[in-house]
Amino acid sequence: MAVKDGPARSHAERKCLGAWYTPEVLAARIVSRAASLVEGPIRNILDPSSGDGAFLIAARAIVPGARLCGVDADPMAWSACQERARGAHVVLGDSLLSEDEGGIAWTREFPEAEAAGGFDLVVGNPPWEVLEAAAHQGRQSRRAYADALRRSGAQVFATGAKINLYRVAIVRAFEHLRSGGVLAFVVPGGLLRDAGSEALRGFLLDAGEWSEVWEFETGATLFPTAHRDLSCCVVFVRKGRPTDQLSIHAAGSGTPVLLDRAVLDRLGAPDRTIPALASEAELDLMTRLWRLPKLADCVGGIRKGDVNLTTDRAMFCDHPTDLALRTGKEIGPYRVPDGPRRWVAPERFGKRAHTESVRVAWRDIADRTLRKRMCAALLPPRSVLADTLNFLVLSGDEAEAAYFVALLNSHVFEWAVRRRSAHNHLGKRIVGPCPVVPYRSRDTRCRQIADLAKRAEKSPEAAIQADAALAHQYGLSRADLALILEGFPKQPYALKEAILGAFDG
Ligand SMILES: C[S@@+](CC[C@H](N)C(=O)[O-])C[C@H]1O[C@@H](n2cnc3c(N)ncnc32)[C@H](O)[C@@H]1O
């Protein structure tokens, strides 16, 4: 795919403006799909952050005769757009602020679209910046700009002090769309699964027909200079009726997965997560797994560690005490190293109930691109957990704790987690709604799994046996387990074969 980066700029400047330009091939695919979803004629098309005009150029070819309108706040982008998207009416100005706050005068600039009740098509790739992180455009302080945005009456869907400009841009674009018109935007993948986007997901599902989403594994495949971790998606929403079906096009998968609204609501609960699904077979498996109880309902609680590594550092010491400090980095699957690197001064820590018993803990931060992300282990009593670990509150029965360590480390559980996860954290919000088979002390397989978990630190064979036994415990077929293992492309082939062999045995 040919990639182009727009007017030359430094990385810092581009970051500040959110200026990662869309490859023309992708812009053309998006405009073409969006145009096919519009109800009625297409006369007015808008890109409200038009950069150097990739979408307007595509629209000119795909919908000949339509009026092309663009806005950009950056003079360089604006002049490049005028030059390249000949015939388009491109305005230099701000498309997010209201007119009173310094935004463009919509009725004066685009009278035909305003008279028609709005644009038929709004396309583009809005700024992705988080206002907290960058002084917006260097002209106004970020604080002043955030205040102006709030006063502008846009629903900013902000969490705390942070304002993600792409969220504001989506809502603003929606305001300028006529009923039956379509919005198609390239936005961060966080829209699909981040906690902070929950309200916006609700808005898109209810204020319009969110008919389609295209997911890209990393934004770096589209924007080569962007960070490799940046996930990215394209959303298509028609203004009018609420959503009754969503079609998910996963990265690298030829066939989309169609989800009815009722299924989407059930699989996405409680936070309207749009699940990561690459095939109908995955949807079928997820639907069956999601009939099981949720982890959060089967334990006494899911908590983040006891101490904050930064703000509580006055409690830590380099000489041994009877309280070992344990951090996420140290923990491997079933594995805790013998000696801690640091300890906690008991007189500063005080007494905390949880440190008296064995705990099931797992790393909170695990890069999305790791071959295996869940790393759970049994932490002995007198371990103080850093906030880079999460732990379960359990009854105190050691067999139950061992069972849950095996369950959290299993490929089945992590496969479920991956349907919900958008970023590098694996806390309560992500894992809590994932399905589990609860521990029952009288169940032979539960006890067997707990025994295997206790041996798994020293015996890779026991870890494999536990993994396979959990697939049986979840009621899966061999084909289900094979499908799950396919979802871990970086795991060695021999390991996957060994797990399948143990499942058969
Ligand atoms: C991610 S780039 C995308 C450009 C173009 N739509 C494309 O896909 O190639 C975002 C653009 O938004 C512009 N921009 C940032 N804030 C803006 C605002 N408040 N109003 C209008 N444009 C803005 C930037 O100057 C930049 O050109």
3D structure, described in words:
Helices cover 36% and strands 17% of the residues. The protein is of the alpha/beta class. The protein folds into two domains: 11-278, Vaccinia Virus protein VP39 (Rossmann fold, 3-Layer(aba) Sandwich); 295-504, Adenine-n6-DNA-methyltransferase Taqi, Chain A, domain 2 (Adenine-n6-DNA-methyltransferase TaqI, Chain A, domain 2, Alpha-Beta Complex), CATH 3.90.220. A nine-stranded mixed β-sheet has the order 3-2-1-4-5-7-6-8-9, sandwiched between helices. Helix 2 crosses helix 3, helix 15 crosses helix 18 (444-456) and helix 19 (460-473) packs across helix 21 (493-504). The longest helix is centred in the first third of the chain and has 14 residues, at 24-37. The model is unreliable at 1-8 (pLDDT under 50). The site of S-adenosylmethionine has 23 residues, from helix 3 and strand 2.
Secondary-structure topology with pairs:
Layout: H1 11-17, H2 24-37, E1 44-47, H3 54-62, E2 67-72, H4 75-84, E3 89-92, H5 106-109, H6 111-115, E4 119-124, H7 142-151, H8 165-175, E5 177-188, H9 190-193, H10 198-207, E6 208-216, E7 232-239, E8 245-249, E9 257-260, H11 261-267, H12 280-289, H13 295-298, E10 301-304, E11 316-317, E12 324-326, E13 342-344, H14 346-349, E14 359-363, E15 376-379, E16 383-385, E17 389-393, H15 398-409, H16 411-420, H17 428-431, H18 444-456, H19 460-473, H20 478-486, H21 493-504
Parallel strand pairs: 1-2, 1-4, 2-3, 4-5, 6-8, 12-16
Antiparallel strand pairs: 5-7, 6-7, 8-9, 10-17, 11-13, 12-13, 14-15, 14-17
Helix pairs in contact: 2-3, 15-18, 18-19, 19-21, 20-21
Bound molecules: S-adenosylmethionine.
S-adenosylmethionine binds at residues 17-22, 47, 49-51, 54-55, 71-74, 77, 94-96, 124-125, 127.
